[in-house]
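seq as requested:
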Amino acid sequence: MRLSKEQIEQVKTFQKNEITEYQIYKKLARTIKTDNSQVLEQIANDELEHYNFWKQYSGVDVKPNKWKIFKFYWITRILGLTFGIKLMERGEEDAQASYNEAAKYIPEAEKVVDDEDRHEQELIEMIEEKKLNYVGSIVLGLNDALVELTGALAGFTLALQDTRLIALAGLITGIAASFSMAASEYLSKRSDEDEKISEALTSALYTGFAYIITVFILILPYLLIDNYFVCLGLTMAFAILIILSFNYYIAVAKDLNFKKRFWEMALLSLGVASLTFGISYFVRMFFGVDV
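struct tokens:
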């Protein structure tokens, strides 16, 4: 089969993608010393088969994209195996239209690529990552901190009108609440007879840690800036960024609807903050308090 120059260039692009992902999976398989390394090895072999399939038609070897290898290797190492792999595989979804186009001049392409991609997806689902088992605990800590502390800071801002006092009140409230949430999560998990003490404790630590980190991020503007209304605006912006970042991570790692989860969490947090701000205004007016 003779291909045009443009078709050969397209095939070489496919080759480059496959050999790049082969190198990423191979590198991860050598680095990660768990049962997941065997799964990664199998996925790497699939990518190499993809590469060799396309090589039949280009007749040449193609070098991998070194930047992509570096980028996704470190994304995976820092943000987790499942997130890194699924983020990378999402990029392949964008190439599906090109594969369909290639199937017009290489009829075998569609079946071969579909079969092997299905196999890869089955292997990816076999990857086990402990931290994802505690997503519920992280969500609990983040969500409660965002809802409770954005509301509290909005109230403190209008009631106290002093950034240092607001930061102090917010910090005390946040730290106390983080311990309370961690303890509640531990007791909640221990109420299940099948739950081990170590697992309940880990869930509690994830909840408390997520809460306390969120607290420090939301209070940071009050420690750096004197204008309390500017601080409140920055706190709300940070809250949105936290919600955006976390929900994107979960949407990719667990194949969930990003927009729905983002808007639910954002509207809840901002709604509570607005309501608390309004209540604080009327309470301050009613009692005639002026700090």
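The chain has a mean pLDDT of 80.
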